[in-house]
């Protein structure tokens, strides 16, 4: 099986379409969306409908923190970043139908596809939305994940970075930064934690969309970077005429 792992789409229609097309062209036969379907971007209803269609077709979708915010928007605060996120969540909530909000509200926080555990944040208390962004947290995530029978691999989103952690000969985890498009062997005799990056809002200075493709027949993992119509996605944000902050558009263009 070739499993396409897509996370943090953030209402970015153009990036999602590009990644799905790329994955299908490279032989993906199962799709998993790892949360944060919405938030920040201008096309939440489109993205949620695509997720609903994937579930109807037998594929896998789990929830993230921005999906929860869209169901029940957080109150704004006096702190700029938090108040902008709250503003975006409220706007997103208003764009979604009652059916789409119900879909988001009932998404599971984890799913298992074969021996692979999928979670938006850490498998250790997924509801706490903890970032898997260092070896210590990755080890705690892996410990929780491997309590599920047969699990040797756990894949997460949330951090908007593409990173792989693995257990070597010692007790701790080793961190590996992959090269896009280069297959990495991930044999199940070791244990692995991967963060698959963000489809709709990369934050590493490269505006191209991110996702990962896992081949479970040969146990190879390929982290992908996909060009898409960034200017169109940014223009759609600006077209909300201030309902979404202009900084959300700028973030797409610079990849930060």
From TrEMBL:
<dbReference type="GO" id="GO:0016791">
    <property type="term" value="F:phosphatase activity"/>
</dbReference>
<protein>
    <submittedName>
        <fullName>Metallophosphoesterase</fullName>
    </submittedName>
</protein>
<comment type="similarity">
    <text>Belongs to the metallophosphoesterase superfamily. YfcE family.</text>
</comment>
<dbReference type="InterPro" id="IPR024654">
    <property type="entry name" value="Calcineurin-like_PHP_lpxH"/>
</dbReference>
<dbReference type="InterPro" id="IPR011152">
    <property type="entry name" value="Pesterase_MJ0912"/>
</dbReference>
<dbReference type="InterPro" id="IPR050126">
    <property type="entry name" value="Ap4A_hydrolase"/>
</dbReference>
<dbReference type="Pfam" id="PF12850">
    <property type="entry name" value="Metallophos_2"/>
</dbReference>
<dbReference type="GO" id="GO:0005737">
    <property type="term" value="C:cytoplasm"/>
</dbReference>
<feature type="domain" description="Calcineurin-like phosphoesterase">
    <location>
        <begin position="1"/>
        <end position="217"/>
    </location>
</feature>
<dbReference type="InterPro" id="IPR029052">
    <property type="entry name" value="Metallo-depent_PP-like"/>
</dbReference>
């Amino acid at each position: 099986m070739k499993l396409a792992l897509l996370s943090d789409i953030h209402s970015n229609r153009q990036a999602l379409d590009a990644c799905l097309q790329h994955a299908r062209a490279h032989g993906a036969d199962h799709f998993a969306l790892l949360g944060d379907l919405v938030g920040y971007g201008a096309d939440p209803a489109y993205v949620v409908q695509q997720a609903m269609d994937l579930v109807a077709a037998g594929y896998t979708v789990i929830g993230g923190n921005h999906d929860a915010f869209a169901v029940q928007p957080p109150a704004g605060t006096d702190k700029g970043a938090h108040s902008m996120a709250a503003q975006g969540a409220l706007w997103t909530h208003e764009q979604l139908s009652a059916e789409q909000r119900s879909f988001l509200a009932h998404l599971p926080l984890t799913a298992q596809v074969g021996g692979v555990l999928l979670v938006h944040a850490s498998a250790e208390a997924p509801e706490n939305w903890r970032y898997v962004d260092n070896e210590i947290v990755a080890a705690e995530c892996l410990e929780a994940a491997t309590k599920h029978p047969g699990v040797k691999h756990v894949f997460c989103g949330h951090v908007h970075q593409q990173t792989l952690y693995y257990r070597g000969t010692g007790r701790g985890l080793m961190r590996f930064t992959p090269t896009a498009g280069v297959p990495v062997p991930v044999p199940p005799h070791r244990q692995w934690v991967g963060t698959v990056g963000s489809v709709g809002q990369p934050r590493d200075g490269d505006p191209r969309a991110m996702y990962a493709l896992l081949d479970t027949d040969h146990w190879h993992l390929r982290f992908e970077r996909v060009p898409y119509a960034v200017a169109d996605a940014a223009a759609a944000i600006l077209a909300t005429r201030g309902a979404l902050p202009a900084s959300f558009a700028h973030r797409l263009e610079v990849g930060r």
